[in-house]
């Protein structure tokens, strides 16, 4: 079964997280992704976090379904290979610092002249314009300046980070959305290629809800609130007697009434002050304390059973062990069995989103460095002798 992006060729000129995550998503849905890596060590992600026999487990996930070619971008012949690939590509995805590709001679002006229908996704810390464009900007900086870290964690503690590279991931998702919109324009004959300018800072800022108008009109500066959802009550994390926690979202008016009945406080549901969210939010501390007293008298399982029976949204806070063991994850194919080089079996995350007619697939895990150099160059029309000469010159590996 072919994916919805079958026949789309994507050239990845990126490293680590933001650009490679974007291309991974497109590769899972059928796109041919050709990942250009420097000879020698390749993408630094190959050596990040936990390793298996010298290669990062993250790499095997992040680069699944991609073709790896090892090309020396400091070599004129290597640059020529990339230009030839760009001629037949639909999308180029890169996350160099602004101006980096231009210094190599691979800027938008050069590549778009070779291929007027080319779409180029450019992911950087601050974007391709503006006074900060030349600053280095990793995901952590995007999270900080985009506003999310100011609102994350306990009010009594310094700003916290989310436990994953959320800034990079949000930029990746915006890059994919932009690429697909631009591709639709090209493929439907509405116009030629264009640049998708994605900033890490702006990608985080884009999910910050009503932060700006609340500040502008009301002077409200949203800050850290721990497990609570500010201004939406009750919605918080509550302790249980067995040392665990449950997250309860009882913030719609009907759900609030069912929640209060479940914890034995129907009087609060009938209180005119609590009939809508505005009134409840003014006394959030009182409601949270009341709910917390109820949860502290029960185990996680007891609390969840009662809340589920009352149709109140609630859940435990999952560790990775909980996720892997959960039957719903398994039923949704969100835990896939994979095989690493040498035959080692390992569980990997499944594919999101679920498409009914053209679902995504995993065809192979992250490849060895340069595993597809010869086949990709052969597709460009280079014979074995020409490929050997490029190797002798250090243009490819």
UniProtKB/TrEMBL annotation:
Keywords: Transferase
Entries under SUPFAM superfamilies matching the protein: CoA-transferase family III (CaiB/BaiF)
The organism's place on the tree of life at top rank: Bacteria
GO molecular function: CoA-transferase activity
Pfam families documented for this protein: CoA_transf_3 (PF02515)
The protein's Enzyme Commission number: 2.8.3.22
Xref: InterPro entries: CoA-transferase_III_domain (IPR050483), CoA-Trfase_fam_III (IPR003673), CoA-Trfase_III_dom3_sf (IPR044855), CoA-Trfase_III_dom_1_sf (IPR023606)
Broadest EC class assigned to this enzyme: transferase
Protein name (record): Succinyl-CoA--L-malate CoA-transferase beta subunit
Protein encoded by which gene: smtB
């Amino acid at each position: 079964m072919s994916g919805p992006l079958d026949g789309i060729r994507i050239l990845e000129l990126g490293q680590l997280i933001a650009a490679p995550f974007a291309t991974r998503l497109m590769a899972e849905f059928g796109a041919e992704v050709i990942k250009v890596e420097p000879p020698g060590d390749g993408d630094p992600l190959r050596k990040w976090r936990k390793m298996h026999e010298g290669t990062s487990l993250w790499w095997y996930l992040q680069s699944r379904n991609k073709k790896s070619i090892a090309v020396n971008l400091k070599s004129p012949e290597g640059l020529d290979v990339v230009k030839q690939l760009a001629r037949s590509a639909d999308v180029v995805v890169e996350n160099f610092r602004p101006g980096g590709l231009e210094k190599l001679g691979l800027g938008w002006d050069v590549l778009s002249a070779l291929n007027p229908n080319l779409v180029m996704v450019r992911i950087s810390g601050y974007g391709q314009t503006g006074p900060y464009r030349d600053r280095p900007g990793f995901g952590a900086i995007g999270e900080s300046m985009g506003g999310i870290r100011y609102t994350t964690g306990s009010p009594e503690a310094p700003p916290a980070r989310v436990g994953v590279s959320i800034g990079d991931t949000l930029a990746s998702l915006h890059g994919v959305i932009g690429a697909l919109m631009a591709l639709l324009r090209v493929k439907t004959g509405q116009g030629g290629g264009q640049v998708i300018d994605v900033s890490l800072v702006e990608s985080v800022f884009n999910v910050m809800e009503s932060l700006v108008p609340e500040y502008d009109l009301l002077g409200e500066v949203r800050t850290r609130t721990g497990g609570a959802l500010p201004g939406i009550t009750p919605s918080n994390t509550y302790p249980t007697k067995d040392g665990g926690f449950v997250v309860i979202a009882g913030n719609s008016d009907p759900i609030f009434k069912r929640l209060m009945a479940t914890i034995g406080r129907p009087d609060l549901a009938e209180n005119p002050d609590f009939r809508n969210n505005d009134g409840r939010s003014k006394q959030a501390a009182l409601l949270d304390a009341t709910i917390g007293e109820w949860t502290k008298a029960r185990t996680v399982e007891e609390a969840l059973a009662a809340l589920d029976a009352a149709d109140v949204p609630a859940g435990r806070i999952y560790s990775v062990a909980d996720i892997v063991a959960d039957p719903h994850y398994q039923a949704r194919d969100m835990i896939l069995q994979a095989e690493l080089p040498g035959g080692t079996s390992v569980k990997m995350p499944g594919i999101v989103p679920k498409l009914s007619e053209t679902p995504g697939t995993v065809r192979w895990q992250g490849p060895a460095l340069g595993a597809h150099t010869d086949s990709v160059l052969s597709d460009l029309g280079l014979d074995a002798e020409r490929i050997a000469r490029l190797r002798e010159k250090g243009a490819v590996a």
